[in-house]
Design a protein that fits this description.
Oligomer: single chain
Number of helices: 10
Radius of gyration: 20 Å
Shape: globular
Largest sheet: 3 strands, antiparallel
Distance between the termini: 35 Å
Strand order of the largest sheet: 1-2-3
CATH class of the largest domain: Alpha Beta
Strand content: 15-25%
Amino acid sequence: MWDYSEKVREHFFNPRNSGPLDNANGVGDVGSIKCGDALRLMLKVNPESEVIEDAHFQTFGCGSAIASSSALTEIIKGKTLDDALKVSNQDIADYLDGLPPEKMHCSVMGREALQAAVANYRGEVWSDDHEEGDLVCKCFAIDAVMIEETIRGNGLKTMEDVTNYTKAGGGCSACHEKIEDILIAVNGRLYSNEPKAKKAPKESPVKPQLTNYQRIRKIEDTLEAIRPMLQRDHGDVSLVEVDGKKIYVALSGACQGCSMEAATLGGIQHKLVEALGELVQVLPVAALAHS
């Protein structure tokens, strides 16, 4: 289990500036629900001074994504746009007294959302998919430009670092060699003076297929592990239906109709993706009626 700082916990359970922002004049959208994390950052900028007077967020993702988004809004309020753009993903992590290495990609997502929102305010075109870049990680739609920029900006040295900061390579091993090539191109040959050896082709390990019964039991066990945290806040969750990659749940108590319902579903989805080792979508039971 990851070791979260008290400040991360505080910003997850009591996020600042969550929800829509009336009269926002700069909006940045990054990530995707399909990949498990999505963030909308909304800014209210004074047109004369370019000072950020207010900032709100809406996040679909895990607790670290919510905490990072909350921290980002607190950091940038009161700054000019130019000063806000100097805020790095490491600044976000430091504000939270650190993030687990496996969750640093949440702070990177916040940094990109800020760039997108400022570009939107200024009428500029900004794209988080870097269309000019070669798509490296198909599992999470991460391209070479994104990987290279993150390696340079954070001094990353290893494959594990890249996965922690971008999620690239975290789904399967098909892109690992390309990521290693980018690491070498940015950092040089850090680990050996020997020329890079040709890798013998190898078959990807095949994970044992879960039976339907085993899969549903794993889903139920994962939800059972989550329930105590929700119950402490007078909420609860229960499994309703499993339809392929779609998992329908019912939120009850304080969780039902809560303004953070989407974030709660996102956190549950993140846990289930990890437990099952596959991309799944967690949906409220109301969506079942319309499917």
